[in-house]
Amino acid sequence: MPSNGKKVVVDRFKCAYCGACVSVCKNNANELVETFLVIDETKCNCCMLCVKVCPMNALRVVEG
Ligand code: SF4
Ligand code: SF4
User: Fold this and answer.
1) What is the domain partition of the chain in residue ranges?
2) If you measure from the C-alpha of residue 50 to the centroid of ligand 1, how many angstroms do you get, rounded to a whole number?
3) Whose CA is nearest to atom 1 of ligand 1?
């Protein structure tokens, strides 16, 4: 998946494990594993959908 050298990261202190980002991802690039949100960089194309729906502002895009 092309991601232009960017990736999505989660702030574990902000994440409330609501699952909204998992529901919205079309690439199945993220999943809740027990109490951690795991983002698979090989599947994520940085479409930003999850960043926009997160009610806790826990997701953001960073370089590389
Ligand atoms: S940025 Fe898009 S592809 Fe990546 S985890 Fe979020 S919703 Fe999925
Ligand atoms: S949408 Fe935000 S608060 Fe909900 S699981 Fe994803 S990162 Fe955590």
Assistant:
1) 6-63
2) 6
3) 46
Residue 16 CB burial class (10 angstroms; 0-12, 13-18, ≥19): exposed
Instruction: Provide the token pair at 42.
Output: 């090989």
Q: What is the pLDDT of residues 3-61, one digit of tens each?
A: 578 999 999 999 999 999 999 999 999 999 988 999 999 999 999 999 999 999 999 99
The pLDDT tens digits of the residues spanning 19-29 come to 999 999 999 99
- Which residue's alpha carbon is at the smallest distance from atom 6 of ligand 1? 50
9 bridge partner residues: 60
**What mean pLDDT is reported for the chain?**
93
19 CA: nearest ligand 2 atom: 5
The topology (CATH level 3) of 6-63 is Alpha-Beta Plaits (3.30.70)
